[in-house]
Amino acid sequence: MKSFSTEDLLEFLYKECDSEKMEAIESALSDNPDLNQEFLQIKEVQSTLNDVNYSPSKKSVDLILEYAMNSEMQ
Question: Model pTM?
Answer without folding.
Answer: 0.68
